[in-house]
Amino acid sequence: MTNTTWGGEVTALIPQRYRVEKVRSVAQIVRYPDSPFILHQPFPPAGDQPSAIEALSGPQDEAEQMRKVFEQRRDLIVRRINAMPGVSCLKPSGAFYVMMNLEQILGKQIDGQVIGSGDDFAKLLLEKSLVAVVPGSGFGAPNFVRLSYAISTENIETGMDRLEGFLKQLQ
After folding, report:
1. pLDDT tens-digit profile of 104-131?
2. Separation between Cα atoms, residue 138 and residue 120, nearest integer Å
3. What share of the chain is helix, strand, coil (3-state, %, to 5)?
4. How far apart are CA 95 and CA 93, in angstroms?
5. 164 Cβ neighbours under 8 A, 6+ residues apart
6. Is residue 17 within a helix (H) or strand (E), and if so which, with residue range?
7. Phi and psi dihedrals of 142, rounded to 5?
8. How confident is the model at residue 4 (pLDDT cuts 50, 70, 90)?
9. CA distance 132 to 130
10. Residue 52: its pLDDT value, please?
11. Integer angstrom CA distances of residue 104 from 37, 39, 53, 59, 117
């Protein structure tokens, strides 16, 4: 569940029913620094709490509208990537980015520069086509890059056109 605000941020952990017994309290999770859970502001400042209450109990029309827009953007970027030769991605179920698989294009080159990893791909895509992506190496996925769809549909279309043009130049 999310709402956007101009400064305050409150994170809500709402586990599925069968997981409730595994997550007894947020306080237990926060106490253990080696926990796999990362919580941003688990105990929100008093000033943010009224905003959080309003966001969770108020009308959800705008949040639903935003969700639909992000769903459309996600579907657009996934469809476009999966239609391009040599790259692919899965449809994420809850993020603002996709992880694009580059394994089929590794070893190819553009202007004599070999693409050996997601790091190489990200650097060359930015230099040659002015499209910024995040190398997957920082996420333990060196043969992937991460593309955000938390941008306008127009910018996604432009980026996908440039990506497609870049891929066509690979040898």
Report:
1. 999 999 999 999 999 999 999 999 999 9
2. 13
3. 45, 10, 45
4. 7
5. 80, 84
6. none
7. -65, -20
8. low
9. 7
10. 66
11. 33, 36, 48, 46, 11
75: amino acid identity, one letter: D
Do 71 and 92 meet the contact criterion of CB atoms below 8 Å apart? no
Evaluated on CA atoms 28, 17, 70, 105, the torsion sign reads positive
Yes or no: say if 118 and 135 are a contact pair by the CB < 8 Å rule.
yes
How far is residue 128's CA from residue 122's CA, in Å, rounded to a whole number? 10
Residue appearing with tokens 């996908």 = 160
Judge whether 60 and 74 are in contact, CB under 8 Å.
no
Question: Are the CB atoms for 80 and 143 separated by under 8 Å?
Answer: no
**Inter-residue contact 121 to 136 (CB < 8 Å):** no
Identity of residue 98: V
Q: What secondary structure does DSSP assign to 63-83, as a single string?
A: HHHHHHHHHHHHHHHHHHHHT
Q: How confident is the model at residue 161 (pLDDT cuts 50, 70, 90)?
A: very high
Place of tokens 């230099």: 127
Do 94 and 140 meet the contact criterion of CB atoms below 8 Å apart? no
Burial 70-97, CB ≥16 within 10 A → b, else e? eeebbeebbebbeebeebbbeeeeeeeb
Confidence at residue 36, expressed as pLDDT on a 0 to 100 scale: 45
